[in-house]
From TrEMBL, chains A, B:
Protein's GO biological process: regulation of RNA splicing
Protein name: AHNK2 protein
Record localization: Nucleus
Organism: Certhia familiaris
InterPro entries with a match to the protein in the record: Myelin_sheath_structural (IPR052082), PDZ (IPR001478), PDZ_sf (IPR036034)
GO cellular component: costamere; nucleus
Protein encoded by which gene: Ahnak2
Record-annotated PDZ domain positions: 4-71
Length: 110, 110
């Protein structure tokens, strides 16, 4: 008797040492994981796991590689995480300098 | 005066109509967004946005496209979302049939 779990791997670099199979309606599955590889030791992938999604972090990525990833993923469902500079509204002028300073920085608007 | 926000786009298919620039230490930035394109209308991307990460969902993806995405992202930081079948432990045999049934299904182990 089995049960299904969904899980997320740690965010790590260098997911090498595995192959996939499937595609289309069937889904993408881990076909083979090389022993002692990062896929096995760091990501703990196992043969038979279904890959539901992959999040690729763009820090220190080569332009060409980012471009290819974006091009190949274009037809599919994607979600981007963005950093955006936005203008601080005029009405903040009436607040104190100290208050203004606190408003600057990173804010999550999920 | 500006502030920075981080935000996530909706999960949608077909992120077309934009170009990127940058790479390496600098980061990847949205260079141009075509008006009336999905990138503009559906994803609300704006020129100057920094792409921190992209999550690609593998439902209904072609094998070849999934393979390319995994190959190009291999050197970089990634996170996978997986579905895995696991064996239900023997000690569950002592529980009631109804209880067993409740254990079967999707469980998040984030």
């Amino acid at each position: 008797e089995t049960m299904e779990v969904t899980l997320k791997t740690e965010v790590e670099a260098g997911a090498s040492g595995f192959s996939v199979k499937g595609g289309g309606n069937e889904g993408i599955f881990i076909k083979k994981v090389l022993k002692e590889s990062p896929a096995s030791k760091i990501f703990s992938l196992r043969e038979g796991d279904q890959l539901l999604s992959a999040t690729i972090f763009f820090d220190n990525i080569k332009y060409e590689d980012a471009l290819k990833i974006l091009q190949y993923s274009e037809p599919y469902r994607v979600q981007f995480s963005l950093k955006r500079k936005i203008a601080v509204q005029e009405d903040l002028e009436h607040s104190t300098a100290r208050h203004k300073k606190e408003r600057i920085g990173q804010v999550d608007v999920l």
